[in-house]
From TrEMBL:
InterPro entries cross-referenced by the UniProt entry: Lnb_N
Alphabetic keyword roster: Membrane, Transmembrane, Transmembrane helix
Lineage, broadest ranks: Bacteria, Pseudomonadati, Pseudomonadota, Gammaproteobacteria, Moraxellales
Location of the Lnb N-terminal periplasmic domain: 139-294
Keyword Amino-acid biosynthesis: no
Protein name per its UniProtKB record: Lnb N-terminal periplasmic domain-containing protein
Source organism per UniProt: Acinetobacter proteolyticus
Membrane-crossing segments per the record: 9-40, 46-66, 78-95
Keyword Transmembrane helix attributed: yes
Amino acid sequence: MHNIGSREFFIALGVGLLHSLFTLFVVLSSVWFCLALWIQQPLGTFFSRLSIILWSLFALSLIGVYVSGHLVSRRTDIIIYCVAFACALVWYFSLEARQDRDWNPEVAEQLSYEKNGDLVKLHNVRNFDWHADGSYDIHWEDRSIDLNKITGINVITSYWMGPQIAHTLVSFDFADQKPLVFSIEIRKEKGEDFSAIGGFFRKYELSLVASDEKDLIYTRSNVRHEQVYLFPIRMPAAERKALFIEYLHKADELRAEAKWYNTLTSNCTTLVFDMVQAINPQRLPKDYRLLASGYLPNYLYDLKALNQNYSMKEWYRLAHINPRAEQYEQQPNQSSEYFSDIIRTGLPKTE
């Protein structure tokens, strides 16, 4: 009797565990699929929302919450659910990023270039003239770069939703011309707004923008009034050059094939990390601050990429460009060269 009781106990335990795992699977898969339907709306607003309601009711009936009874029988309902979810996965992963949407003018053009040795001619460098109300005058231009004239590199973090999350940009300094900044962004369509949740569900394509600093940085500090910080980074000359070339390769990649932005795995910070890792002879440590990008400067400080003669608190104070960017507004000289100069005033050297 004792052996039979033990056997029955373990069978019941196993069944209970399987039931719990299946319940967890139904809950997580339903939440994921309903969010995907909400974001993508493949059947239009009304029918997509109706599908969400029907799917939710079916899922609740499977796990016996609020809804009792079965569509056919419990075993058949489980099979129907699994097959339906498999079809949902096929639908979702068949969504292809595209190049031919009606793009917002800010990301309408794609960066291209011609390279002859260390001389690079960039096409479609953005240099918009931004106004206080958020409107802009469109201007795309060419720029010629000598990779041997790169003298410095800066990481810019722009905070727009609290201290945990920041947009990351990378700017290159040159001996013979004004800086150039790169930004990996979502490629928004006209009338489209950013949604962090949408970024998990193939809502946006990726875009690489090369720009004048008075465009990409100015619009964040002076037009959108985000809090912007500029950190000069310690990096050997060979690696600075290699990183610039990595950006060119990323431009090639995105021109050849559109790719999806992902809020967690393929964003403005993780992709920069991947490019830096590609040129770095040593493995860089993975860190939560690559996801909580607002703390990226602290990560760089721990890697000794920032001048260690200053504390992190001092770095944040000195790197904050907004007060200097506001002073720029009052100056008669409104050139982009002067903007780049004034936001660097008082910054520590890399050594």
